[in-house]
Amino acid sequence: HGKPDYAATEKASHFKPIAYPKPDGVLTFDRLSSVFLSNTNHEEDQPVHLKVKDENLQKSSEYVDFAGLSARYCPAGVYEWIDADGNSVPADADRKPGDNVRFQINAQNCVHCKTCDIKDPNQNINWTVPQGGEGPVYSVM
Ligand code: SF4
Question: Which helix (H) or strand (E) segment is 127 a member of?
Fold first, then answer.
């Protein structure tokens, strides 16, 4: 469509939030159950292979302007914005630049789809090659 995917992403204020139904466990499944089926495996203390170039930009733009879209496009629940009480910030939260939040990367869940590298609107997340031999192991592929 004439421009890179990240450049086609628009700010959250241009849209109305979509309330998706909860997974029914028959035709639709929650993300962490699907991550389990991928048999993905990384050592807990491996060097993080997902690099955020500028933490301030991540908060001012990805968190505030784009409503933390990494928590939605990542199929494995790797990215979360965490509030001062240690809870994940919900998708429909009212977000302000002064919020006491931090960006958490659960790199051990990554299934190496590289969506974050392609879709982040600021090109602020770099997917790098993880520690050798780690990642998803799809048993029927
Ligand atoms: S590569 Fe895919 S699974 Fe891994 S963090 Fe990025 S979006 Fe999530």
Answer: strand 125-127
